[in-house]
Amino acid sequence: MVRVPALQEPLKKVLGPATAKVMAEHLGLHTVGDLLHHYPRRYEERGQLTHLADLPMDEHVTVVAQVADARLHSFASAKAPRGKGQRLEVTITDGSGRLQLVFFGAGVHKPHKELLPGTRAMFAGKVSVFNRRLQLAHPAYELLRGEGEETVETWAGALIPLYPATAKLESWKIGKAVQTVLPSAQEAADPLPDSLRDGRGLLALPEALLKIHRPHTKADIDDARARLKWDEAFVLQVALARRRHADTQLPAVPRAPRPDGLLTAFDDRLPFTLTEGQRKVSREIFDDLATAHPMHRLLQGEVGSGKTMVALRAMLAVVDAGGQAAMLAPTEVLAQQHHRSITEMMGDLAEPGMLGGAEHATKVVLLTGSMGTAARRQALLDLATGEAGIVIGTHALIEDKVRFHDLGLVVVDEQHRFGVEQRDALRGKGRQPPHLLVMTATPIPRTVAMTVFGDLETSVLDQLPAGRSPIASHVVPAADKPHFLARAWERVREEVAGGHQAYVVCPRIGDEEDDPEKAGKKKTPEDEAEKRPPLAVLEVAGQLARGPLEGLRVEVLHGRMHPDDKDAVMRRFAAGETDVLVATTVIEVGVNVPNATAMVIMDADRFGVSQLHQLRGRVGRGSAPGLCLLVTEMPEASAARQRLNAVASTLDGFELSRIDLEQRREGDVLGQAQSGARSSLRVLAVIEDEEVIAEARQEAAAVVAADPELTGLPALRTALDALLDEDREQYLEKG
Q1: Residue 435 backbone dihedrals phi, psi, to 5 degrees
Q2: What whole-number distance in Å separates Cα of residue 525 and Cα of residue 617?
Q3: What are phi and psi of 13, to 5 degrees?
Q4: I need a labelling partner for 376 at 20 to 30 A (CA). Which of 2, 219, 237, 321 fits?
Q5: pTM of the predicted model as reported, rounded to 2 decimal places
């Protein structure tokens, strides 16, 4: 992360072109500085053996173990028909388990001479299963007891660093390369201000680099990691603090609501009382809107906590102040749903100039890609003239031909569905930067919010409106206990008999375009074991209508239907004309049918934790209790079942988001995960290191407030430049 001129030396000059090429292509390492910041993943102690019993399948691993026995076999094959084929089988052990190594053909000679019983070595390769036993085929290895000067010197330390490696470059080769460049660590310029480093008792950067790569004790490792975590947290928080500071310098039109305007008229007609949380968050938003620089606020709240109501009141306040508001939704189904619910909530306040329309009314228009030409032309005209105070749309809002009379507020619903470029394009349509409200129903742990959305102020809605019902969730193990699945369909029939409705969710659509292999490569041994393609909406709907749900009104909904058909299906379901809706995750966000009380999620193990929580939030939206059944064929001991048990055990979205994040790891908090680049976080874990991140944010804010351009901290500027390469700089710019 911290690259300074002295460490900018290209690796090909230091290590030679062949090694440098592999490091660049497979590990993203180009300079001496990059390699110094490629930290060991873990450490092996001499005399303490690796746990072979815990080896992960299909992963490239490095183990330290002892040869138990080695046997050379001859066999006949197409290439060696006279029984002259050779296979060397070596068994290694570490006390906790045994592992088979296998070498073939000409590759047997060197290991046959070197891997004698009693020999200790490091072995690296991909773990596979053969004849129900774990094995490494043709592993690379490095002897650890050799008298050779280089081996002794290289592995002289008590702790052997094991690096994130690839099949092309084993851990010990990376270790030797690090040994070559380690003297350059002395020239690493320190990005942390002296006062911060001394005040917190942190190592200097050169010392930290030395200790992370060549520790003598475990305390060395802990000290080095503590220091390097601060580097990552602090430099990132400085980047975000500078972004926030720059935003306060931008001009914006203050949008204070009129005392007797549209907002007051709307509030007077509300048939219910706003929750205390809604009132508090609205006050925060109105305070931001009244300032002369753009609001940048993240509104996060549980599914059904009333975010749309808060956003609508903010939009009405902006219309009162003479501006327009745009709401960006991720799907046409959701945009149509928002448009329908907002016009219903506003009633005659959404009917300007019409007979019976209210005095303060404003037009609410919908803009999506599939609208007819005439309706689209009229919507564009209403936006350009200012006739429409509120527009709700999909990414169609971002197109060049869309012009606003005076865009004052952009509301982005379900932020994670949009790239920063899309948000930026919409924000660029204001004469001056419009205010921005980003909403998400995916709860984000506090540290992630500070890290990913560190340039946004955060508001949290954690109260559910009165009248919301609890949701009971249960895992249905269809393979172990088929009668549980039969009971699930009986429960659906009971809900329908009681006057309610149900959803059945499937992972895919099931038409010929819908190839399960396109969903991505199978990632885990569980997926590998699960050869059956995920259940599909079109198949399941037919089976249910002919089988356990025969006689009920069953309809399907998925993303490839024509938008008019989707809308018609949703209208029928909302009106109670359909008993059971079999759908894909197109219903995941925003769909609001209070009479739907039951949801059955098929192949629930194919969905992520946050996604399951989102889906579950579609039921229990009325006064009757909700029921969510998570159907899976995964065995009880699998990680997938543990994930489902976690979802069933709590309705707390923030708790689930922590579980989700711990399982998925952070990815790159600056959004680089979207482009498949390496994570910028090497030692910092956003869940575990909550305290470091919170403190780094405070320190960064103080540093930027005192010296926004960092003129007095050239090494920090250099570290920022290395972190914020062009793509990331743009990502923050567009934030």
Answers
A1: -70, 150
A2: 30
A3: -75, -30
A4: 321
A5: 0.66
Of the CA atoms within 13 Å of residue 558, those in its CB half-sphere come to: 20
Contact predicate 204/198, CB 8 Å: no
Of the candidates 591, 592, 613, 590, which has an alpha carbon nearest to the alpha carbon of residue 601?
613
pLDDT digits (tens, 9 = 90+) for 102-160: 998 888 888 999 999 988 888 877 788 887 788 888 888 888 765 444 443 444 345 78
Q: 205-213 and 218-249 are packed helices; what angle lies between their axes, rounded to 10 degrees?
A: 130
The CA–CA distances, whole Å, from 672 to 340, 681, 732 equal: 36, 11, 11
Structure tokens at 30: 């180009």
| Residue appearing with tokens 């399907």 | 556
Task: Return the SS3 of 259.
Answer: coil
Ranges of the chain with pLDDT below 50:
1-4, 47-50, 147-157, 417, 516-530, 666-679, 726-727, 729-735
Buried b (16+ CB within 10 A) or exposed e, 333-368: bbbbbbbbbbbebbeebbbbeeeebbebbbbbbbbb
Q: Which regions of 231-379 does DSSP assign to beta strands (E)?
A: 296-301, 324-328, 363-367
H/E run at residue 64: strand 60-75
Residue at token pair 């742990």: 445
* Sign of CA pseudo-dihedral 329, 332, 333, 335: positive
What pLDDT was estimated at residue 28? 85
What percentage of the chain has pLDDT greater than the value 90?
A: 34
Contact assessment for residue 585 and residue 519, using Cβ atoms and an 8 Å cutoff? no
